[in-house]
Every structure is written in C-alpha cells, then in structure tokens.
Write a structure and sequence with these properties.
The protein is an alpha/beta fold and 468 residues long. The protein folds into 2 domains: 283 residues, Rossmann fold, CATH 3.40.50.720; 170 residues, N-(1-d-carboxylethyl)-l-norvaline Dehydrogenase, domain 2 (Orthogonal Bundle), CATH 1.10.1040. It is 48% helix and 13% strand. The chain has 22 helices and 13 strands. It has an 8-stranded mixed beta sheet with strand order 6-3-2-7-8-9-12-13, with helices on both faces. Strands 5-4-11 form a 3-stranded mixed beta sheet, sandwiched between helices. Strands 1-10 form a two-stranded parallel ribbon. A hairpin with a 4-residue loop joins β4 and β5. The N and C termini lie far apart (48 Å). The N terminus is likely disordered.
Length: 468
C-alpha cells in the first residue's frame, strides 16, 4: 500500500497543489491523452495503467464526462487526483493516482475541441458503453437516430458560422468526435490514435466505421482525412469496478489520510490487450502489464462471452430473484447452473488454446468475492445492446451448427421477463422497448430489437417463448 499519511494531515481535502509542493510524483503532466466518458472503470483501468507506466510524467489525461457531470464536479476541486482502492478477498490497498490532470463536463464541447485539436494530443480513449456508439444490430451507424441527425445539422452550422454557437454543439459521442477531428484537420495537428475501451467485438473497427460514416454525412474531405490520418485501436479491457459507496470514502480517508470525495474501488485483477497503431506515440503501457497483440479477436470473444455474457445473465436473473450483487447471484445454485450451461455452450466456439478451464475458474473466484459489491442494477443497464454482443453471436453460431441452445434462449427470456414485468434500467432504445412490450407478442418483438437473425428463426424464437 502506498502510504501518503506523511504528506497530508488526516482528513484534509485531497488537493493536487498541496501534494505537488511535498512530492514531485504528483506534479501536473502535459495533456497528451483525451478521454471521453470518465467514470469508475476508466479510473480503475486506463488511468491506472497510465499512472503506473508513465514514470517520466509525460502523459497527462484530460477527461470528459459522459451522461452525467458528477465526476467533473467531484474531481475538479481535487485537481483530478483520486484514491484507487484495490480490494482483495481479505484486505484493501490504496494509492493516489495523478494521471488525470483535467476533468470537464462532457457538455463543455468547446474545451473538448480545443484539447483534441492540439498537436501534443496523440490519443483519444473512450469508455461510453456499447450504446454510445449508436450502431444498429448490423454494426452500422443508425441513420434513423434522431440525435445523430440533429448533430449533422449542428456540425454543418458550426462549419458555416463565423463565430459558432457554443450552446448548440453536438450531443452524441460520435458527433463530438467528428467535430474534434475536423478541428484537428484544420489545424494540421498530425495523426491521432483513437482507442475504444468498450465491450464491443472489434470495437476499434466498429468505431472507425461509425466515425467515418458520420464524417461522410458532413464533409467528404474530412472522411478521407480520417481514413488516412487517424488510427483506430481495438482493445480488450477487464477489471470489475463496482459503484462507489459512502463507506468507501471513509475507508479511503483512513488509508490515505485525506478526504477524497470520489475514490474508486476495484478488484486486484486487471487485463488490457491492444491491437493497432500509435503513430503519435503512446505511454509504455506494457510496463504496467498491458499486452499488444496482432490478432485480438479470440481474446475479445473469450472476455465478452464468458465474463460479460455471464454478468448480463446473472444481472437479469438475480434481479428477478430479488438479489443485489454478482456475488449473491453466482452464489444462488440456479444462477451458478445457468452460467455454467452458458459457458459450456460458449466454449464450443472458442479456441482451446485460450486455457478456458483456467479462465472460467478464475472468473468464478472473481465473481464470488463478496467484498466487490458489483450491483446487478448497474450491470443490467443497456441490456438490449449488451445481449446483442454478449449472447447473440453464440446463439447464431449454435444455429449454424444445427442446434437451438437453451442457455442462450434462457438469457434472452430472463431479460424479456424482467422487461415485461415492468423493471426498467437506463437503455437508449427505451421507446422501442415500450412498443415491443405492449405488442401482441412481446417475446418476439423484444428479441427482434436485439438480433433480427435470431428473431427470424422460428426454432430459436420458440425456445425463448418456452423459457419465458
């Protein structure tokens, strides 16, 4: 555990300027990375890797919030500093991280465009959840998305205006990225690497397609520049990071000797696998344990299906049972049986060389850690999109092999039952959810929202109805 009690008086506010005077490890770094969607996971993962790898203090992060500005309000007065609590089965260890040097409300698009267009900025990272990419079931940018269409109009107006209206900037992640790239192109700031850190297969490829498609709606020259000067990096990210509780603030205070209003709790395990180019440079993340590979696809499927797929199943199942956390849901004999069946199916479509038995055993140990209170209500958000990436590919693979898999049908049915019974979590396709639920055949209508190919299979749709 990093002991900072000598640096601060107990329960004094955590402030970067105070620490800088006493310890050069906390001095501000130049902004070289822009992050979109700062939350607990980014701070436990990419910011943690950067903090550990950047021993020369050359790579500072300017972070922008996603759906809510809360993190900016909390971290701003702390100068971006926060406590990371790594929670094992029996004890905690804490450290103060300083890789984030600026935190802004995501609505401050003016500042976002400024830092993204600076020549010193070499990397943009994203953790905006699957839904933030605005793609349909075919992986293409959703042309019917009204917010995207409005953003096209806003960006076109900003290009034409002598003094753009700062209160009418784009609202979607894709729109803001394209606006920032347009500013970078005009400024001649050089190549940029954009790194998706969301749980989507071929996430960098999906993001490239979404960004270039949107750019083509705005400016063909911009589209061509993006294709030639912007690298899109695919990643696999893994570190279970639950929501912070009030008690965690008290624990952070005891461990670091200061008052941190926004600590992050995470497990001790972490994984980051990357594939792609960084023509503008990057931190030596491999020094902190990251891996760079040529073929990332097998690792993507293993993690998305076995970890994230099991999480989604346990979340929807556990909420029906009145459970609260992943540890409780996997501790339920029926919940354990269901994910074991799902894993057996998924492993038929994964390379044996990935040590699947060892990986599954490690997942169970992580899931069962009662001190990591990973809330089912948090995991169940955006289930429409999550099922599309985490379960549907396995169900389709089974159909191609002539089988209708009951474990996959159960995964869809559990979610459908939760929706039909009136449970709601934030989901960007919510209006369509209500239409599907109120239809004469809600099971089929909900399945169609997730995957049209599966919905067109009478055998699979029937299996979902039976499981429902």
């Amino acid at each position: 555990m990093q002991n900072n009690s000598a640096l601060l008086q107990p329960l004094e506010p955590l402030r970067r300027n105070e620490l800088e005077r006493m310890d050069l490890r906390y001095r501000t770094r130049p902004i070289r990375i822009v992050h979109i969607g700062i939350g607990n996971f980014h701070r436990a993962h990419q910011a943690w890797y950067t903090d550990r790898a950047d021993t020369n203090r050359e790579w500072g992060i300017a972070a922008f919030t996603g759906r809510h500005p809360d993190v900016a309000r909390e971290l701003g007065p702390q100068g971006g500093l926060y406590t990371l609590i790594e929670r094992g089965p029996h004890s905690d260890r804490a450290s103060i991280l300083s890789s984030i040097v600026e935190v802004q409300d995501g609505a401050n698009v003016t500042r976002f465009v400024e830092v993204m267009s600076e020549p010193g900025t070499a990397i943009v990272t994203l953790t905006v959840t699957e839904a933030g990419y605005r793609v349909n079931a075919d992986g293409e940018l959703n042309r019917d998305d009204q917010e995207l269409r409005s953003d096209v109009v806003r960006i076109a107006a900003s290009f034409a205006a002598v003094e753009p209206d700062n209160h009418n900037w784009p609202t979607t992640v894709i729109g803001r990225l394209v606006l920032g790239l347009a500013a970078r192109k005009r400024k001649g700031s050089g190549p940029l690497s954009i790194v998706s850190c969301d749980n989507i297969p071929s996430n960098g490829t999906v993001l490239r397609r979404a960004v270039t498609t949107f750019a083509s709606w705005v400016d063909k020259d911009l589209e061509r520049w993006i294709e030639s000067d912007v690298d899109f990096v695919c990643t696999v990210v893994d570190r279970i990071t639950p929501a912070t509780k009030i008690a965690d603030r008290e624990i952070a205070g005891k461990l670091i000797g200061a008052c941190d209003v926004s600590p992050v709790v995470t497990e001790q395990f972490s994984e980051w696998i990357l594939s792609g180019e960084f023509r503008g440079g990057r931190p030596q993340w491999e020094a902190a344990g990251a891996r760079f590979v040529t073929d990332i696809e097998p690792y993507e499927r293993r993690k998305l299906w076995l970890l994230n797929g099991a999480h989604t199943i346990l979340a929807n199942f556990g909420l029906q049972r009145g459970l609260t956390t992943i540890a409780e849901a996997v501790g339920d004999p029926e919940g354990f049986r269901r994910i074991e069946e799902f894993w057996n199916t998924a492993c038929r479509h994964l390379p044996a060389a990935l040590d699947l038995g060892e990986y599954r055993a490690a997942l169970l140990e992580r899931f069962r850690n009662p001190r990591i209170e990973h809330l089912l209500s948090q995991i169940a958000r955006d289930s429409t999109t999550k099922l599309r990436y985490r379960v549907a590919p396995i169900a389709r693979a089974e159909l191609r092999d002539g089988r209708v898999d009951r474990a996959c049908a159960f995964a869809f049915a559990t979610w459908a039952r939760l929706m039909i019974d009136g449970y709601r979590t934030p989901d960007p396709v919510d209006p369509n959810l209500e239409i599907a639920i109120e239809s004469g055949n809600p099971s089929d209508a909900l399945l169609r929202l997730v995957d049209r190919e599966l919905a067109s299979s009478q055998e699979f749709a029937s299996a979902v109805r039976r499981a429902l």
